[in-house]
Amino acid sequence: MKINHTVLLAVILGSTIIFILLIQPRHLSSSSPKPDSMAARSFVLWLHGLGDSGPANEPIKTLFRSPEFRNTKWSFPSAPENPVTCNYGMRMPSWFDIHEIPVTADSPKAESDVLKAVQNVHAMIDKEVAAGTNPNNVFVCGFSQGGALTLASVLLYPKKLGGGAVFSGWVPFNSSMIKKFPEDAKKTPFLWSHGMADRTVLFEAGQAGAPFLEQIGVTCEFKAYPGLGHSISNEELQYLESWIKTRLQSSS
């Protein structure tokens, strides 16, 4: 019984890249755009879902073909192996503990675990900023558990970033955490996308994110996708590309 449940979670929560590969347009090349000395340097950090891995999500970047992304550095880190409560304590790639599946708006929060994961994400961002990337050109994106971590990481970062994009995610902390959000972090805009047919992270959990952000003065664009389950669609990624493009700062 435990084995079957583990396999189910791995398939549902780690299915992002499988879906993307199936819908990736044939005319796109798998190569990245060539660097452009006139384009602004930017950084996109992608955080995967429970049971998935960073390398499995790398084909996402091949969909971003606009010239604005010629000087974009992509990073697809992998979560460490950790015991997961909703998986009967079995170890699997996980940024932080998840107590139950499906995730609802009222699911228990593993705040201490989330905060530890946030520190690791901040270290990745700090390294890129130290290398010369303008924080306004740093974008953190994530799917499912990675989306929840995206939200926490951006809201707790000491500087304004280019943006945060949450796909099929949820709010992984209680409202008491609000007082810890730096004022500059609240200036970072969010894109929040969620499938209305999601049975793993319920639509209600994602839908609660926009009013949560708006009540603390954070700009959030929420997009609902009818018929979409716990996965990422080509339509979502195409919109993400245009959303980031409009927010990239010029190198001049």
From TrEMBL:
UniProt keyword annotation of Lyase present: no
Keyword tags: Fatty acid metabolism, Hydrolase, Lipid metabolism, Membrane, Transmembrane, Transmembrane helix
GO cellular component term of the entry, any: cytoplasm
Organism of origin: Hibiscus syriacus
GO molecular function: carboxylic ester hydrolase activity; palmitoyl-(protein) hydrolase activity
The family this protein is said to belong to: Belongs to the AB hydrolase superfamily. AB hydrolase 2 family.
Pfam families from the UniProt entry: Abhydrolase_2 (PF02230)
Coiled coil: none
Residue stretches making up the Phospholipase/carboxylesterase/thioesterase domain: 39-246
Top-level division of the source organism's lineage: Eukaryota
Biological process, per Gene Ontology: fatty acid metabolic process
Residue ranges crossing the lipid bilayer per the database entry: 6-23
The protein's name: Mediator of RNA polymerase II transcription subunit 11
Keyword Cell inner membrane in annotation: no
